[in-house]
Design a protein that fits this description.
Blueprint: E1 3-12, H1 16-23, H2 29-32, E2 38-43, E3 54-61, E4 64-76, E5 80-86, E6 96-106, E7 109-117, H3 129-154, E8 159-170, H4 180-185
Antiparallel strand pairs: 1-7, 1-8, 2-3, 3-4, 4-5, 5-6, 6-7
Length: 186
């Protein structure tokens, strides 16, 4: 039994600090989210943001609207911002881990990784369970790719080259792929 995850990585022509200012402000996520599902976000804990800070969002899929509560799991300015989104639990395994990992290459270029991990329920790595998990990951991937382009646009920048995609299967206590240090903390 493992937990499916997907990471989309691209090179953005903006400083790491400028990108972090966007991703770490959930009130900007309605403009950032490539899914178009995030309608409104507000903080439910007072500033400043940090590990444990919470925010609530109103989401919409088709005609169905629903609330989510999210809690920051990793806050390392200006490199990492990861939150747990779901029914209101403050720690995994309930919900989805979402986040960004920023690696500055120089003063004007940043390697951006956008990640999603389903810690809610482990999935067997064999069919038909793995087929459903892969279909779900591909759905999320189709929303995550536009998010990177939205991030670049919001920073008055652009994405250079092709996006790289990594699907991974994580064990509960182990990290996923390149997010080794980050997901262990979460």
């Amino acid at each position: 039994m493992k937990f499916p995850s997907v990471t989309v990585t691209g090179l953005v022509t903006a400083p790491c600090e400028a990108l972090f200012a966007i991703i770490s402000d959930p009130t900007r996520h309605p403009q950032l989210a490539g899914s178009g599902e995030v309608i409104e976000v507000k903080w439910i804990t007072p500033p400043p943001a940090g590990v444990g800070s919470g925010f609530q969002s109103r989401q919409c899929i088709g005609w169905y609207q629903y609330p989510t509560r999210s809690y920051v799991q990793v806050y390392e300015p200006p490199y990492r911002f990861i939150w747990l989104s779901g029914p209101g639990f403050k720690k995994p395994p309930f919900g989805q881990l979402w986040g960004f990992d920023l690696q500055p290459l120089d003063a004007r270029t940043t390697l951006v990784s956008h990640l999603m991990r389903w810690p809610l329920l482990p999935v067997p790595e064999f069919p038909p369970f793995s087929w459903f998990a892969e279909r779900g990951l591909r759905h999320e991937l189709n929303n995550m790719k536009p998010t990177l382009y939205n991030l670049a646009r919001m920073a008055n920048a652009e994405v250079i080259g092709e996006l790289r995609v990594v699907f991974d299967w994580c064990e509960r206590t182990s990290p996923c792929g390149e997010r080794r240090g980050t997901l262990v903390e979460a």
